[in-house]
Amino acid sequence: MHAEPFAAAPAPLPPSLDYMLAVAGLPMCDMRPLSLGLHIPDFFAETDPDAALDTYLAYLKREATMHAVLFAGASSVKQLCFEGAGAACLPERAVDSLLGHLRRHFRFMGGDAGDYEAAVDASTMPPGRLKRLRERGFHRVRIHFDGDGMGPERLPVLVDGARAAGFRSVCVALAYGMPGQRLGRLRWMLETVIGAGPDRIALCHRAGLQSGDAIPGSVDQRMQQLCADRLDMASYTHTGAGRYARLPGDAAPGSARTCPELAGLRWRPATHLLGCGLGAVSAVGPVACRNVTAVVDYYTRLDRNELPVAELLPGERTVPYLM
Questions:
Q1: What is the pLDDT of residue 10?
Q2: Pick from 105, 87, 116, 96: nearest CA to 271
């Protein structure tokens, strides 16, 4: 008798190929609109931050083009969002260049059908930028606020200015957990943000506190609890992942409240999510994936004409609707 030859198991497909096959196998009936999430990291620590940002944006455009080729014009872009620590500090020339590139390779929904969000820095934003962003087709704005370099009266002016410019939704991203930040400072920041009355508030954790390991009784946990309690008292409803929204109506804090717009944005799986950039997440059809998180790996993959996908994710770990 002879033993049957050993049959080696087939090598698993690389995550990027799994993603490409998922896109290629989408049925025509599943050609939902697209949500584009562009992740912009912070290059302030680089020797030449401007050159590092320009290089990164060139690679980001290459990745976006690869996604556009996969979809081959079959779907329109419904949502666009700039994410990451460096998104609020993008110069206008970079925003214009990115928008021009994306509009050449994707179809964008016009008028009020689209849902496009810009990010700005409250302390460094030049006069007139909100109006110019609205003229470029952005419907939402996210104002990053860390309490530095500005008085408490400036944030309400910016929020009111965004509404006057025609933005349909104004979000303030409140940074906490930075080195040297104390609970008293965070209380002042919370009161400033609540006093400005934005439609949405996003809590953005900034690493740096030695006690940021979220152990019981840590400063990090106390900060999170302080934010949650104060925002609940101010009638902001927690919508998940550190995000809060002020909903219409006079419901008391802590009671059950619903909003058709919020329910649609948060829970309706109405789009395919395309994430571009370091650590960005995509959720297309049955496949969800995350990009590499190291800049060198990101550039190397794209130089090889490969999508920079690092791993596949369970579908329940992603939210299909971007905002």
A1: 58
A2: 116
Distance from C-alpha of 201 to C-alpha of 240, rounded to nearest angstrom: 11
Q: Confirm if 278 and 293 have CB atoms less than 8 A apart.
A: yes
Q: Are 130 and 161 in contact (CB under 8 A)?
A: yes
Residue located via tokens 């190397």: 300
Domain ranges of the chain: 29-109+263-323, 113-246
**49, 43 contact by CB (below 8 A):** yes
Distance CA 265, CA 273 (A): 13
What is each CA distance from 282 to 6, 26, 247, 309, in whole angstroms? 38, 15, 29, 9
Q: Is 242 left (phi over 0), alpha (psi -120 to 50) or beta?
A: left
Could you read off the pLDDT of 246-266 as tens digits, one per residue?
A: 876 534 333 333 333 333 333
Amino acid at residue number 165: A
Helix (H) or strand (E) holding 130: helix 129-135
What CATH code is assigned to 113-246?
Answer: 3.30.750
Quick one: DSSP state of residue 87? Answer: G
Alpha carbon dihedral 184, 190, 195, 200, in 10-degree steps, equals 180
What is the mean predicted confidence (pLDDT) over 51-58?
96
Whole-number Cα distances in Å, 251 to 240, 245, 247, 257: 19, 13, 9, 7
